[in-house]
Design brief:
The structure holds two protein chains of two kinds.
Chain A lengths: L1 H11 L6 E7 L2 E3 L2 E4 L4 E6 L22 E5 L4 E6 L7 E6 L1
Parallel strand pairs in A: 1-4, 3-7
Antiparallel strand pairs in A: 1-2, 4-5, 6-7
Chain B lengths: L4 H13 L18 H9 L23 H25 L3 H28 L7 H18 L3 H30 L3 H29 L14
The chains are: A mainly beta, B mainly alpha.
């Protein structure tokens, strides 16, 4: 009985939220596709000399200054394409499961 | 159409930026070994052994690229030229896409200059003016004077055409002159790191140029911001 309860408890336990990183450098997001779980935090760091943004239909960092970071906690499952509002060539996505 | 496109481009980009490429203008030394000398030996047969061999021509002196202090001044001048042109465009254009592009140029080139100045300050490199940096500044002033005389679609076309040519020229000089000549590793790394921004600017400018040539009057261009 004790063993069964322990197994059930383990089965229902959610993994601890993680912090995942995306680097912005050379006018690219790296990685340009990132799978995350609901509750995870994604942190973008701008290592370029120019400002960038991380903008989708559901989140928008506004301008991220050089050497600054911006974070977003994934709340709902789905595929979220995003881009830089300043530089149309920059596109990427996070996949929330 | 009298848009003065060609002259603006030539003044701004070619005169100043091509001044950075001394090796391109050097005349090639006459080749005295392979062609004529070779055939002469063949025709004279055994006489070749009595002739002193023709020494190979001395290699041309290595083209001296800009020094790190000169590179610093060139970078600052190149960015400032585009900032000034962008500020003029923001003031004059009625086209929202051209204005948005000009605002981006001002923001990005200001940021690049800020980073460049911070770096050379840290490295204790004092920017040193050269013919190239002076030419860039003078060419930029001349370009703005010509743009000032234009309005409406003529202004937009001249400004964007020049942005395309300017970024092509800057990328070329960055790749062939500034990056190879930079001695300080951090300066070289910064120049390499900033090139993608210039590439992106060029791509953006070319798309904008295509919309203007297609009769675009400012409708939203390219990818939307929201997905």
């Amino acid at each position: 009985m004790v063993v069964l309860l322990a197994v059930a408890a383990c089965g229902s336990k959610k993994p601890a939220p993680k912090i995942l990183h995306v680097e912005i450098q050379g006018m690219k997001y790296s990685p340009d596709a990132l799978a995350v779980a609901v509750g995870d935090t994604v942190e973008w760091t701008n290592n370029d000399l120019v400002p960038h943004s991380v903008t989708s239909s559901t989140f928008d960092s506004k301008a991220i200054a050089p050497h600054a970071t911006w974070s977003y906690v994934a709340k709902t499952p789905g595929d979220f394409a995003y881009n830089c509002t300043f530089h149309p060539v920059m596109v990427a996505a996070i996949i929330v499961r | 159409m009298g848009l003065m496109r060609t002259s603006i481009v030539l003044v701004l980009s070619s005169a100043a930026l091509l001044a950075l490429a001394p090796s391109c203008n050097k005349k090639k030394a006459p080749d005295t070994t392979a062609g004529s000398a070779g055939s002469a030996v063949a025709e004279t047969g055994s006489a070749g052994s009595a002739m002193a061999p023709t020494p190979p021509p001395a290699p041309p002196p290595a083209a001296a690229g800009p020094t790190d202090p000169q590179i610093a001044a060139i970078v600052v001048a190149a960015n400032q030229v585009d900032i000034d042109a962008g500020n003029l465009a923001i003031k004059k254009t009625k086209n929202p896409e051209v204005k948005k592009f000009a605002e981006l140029m001002v923001t990005d080139h200001t940021a690049v200059n800020k980073g460049a100045v911070e770096l050379v300050t840290k490295l204790k490199v004092t920017p040193e003016e050269s013919d190239a940096s002076k030419g860039l500044t003078a060419g930029g002033a001349d370009n703005r004077a010509k743009l000032e005389k234009l309005d409406g679609a003529a202004f937009d076309k001249a400004y964007v055409d020049n942005e395309v040519a300017y970024h092509k020229a800057v990328i070329n000089v960055l790749t062939t002159q500034l990056i190879p000549s930079a001695q300080n590793a951090e300066l070289k790394s910064t120049l390499v790191g900033v090139k993608p921004a210039f590439d992106a600017h060029l791509e953006h400018a070319e798309k904008l140029q295509a919309t203007l040539e297609g009769g675009g009057s400012g409708a939203t261009m390219g990818s939307g911001h929201k997905m």
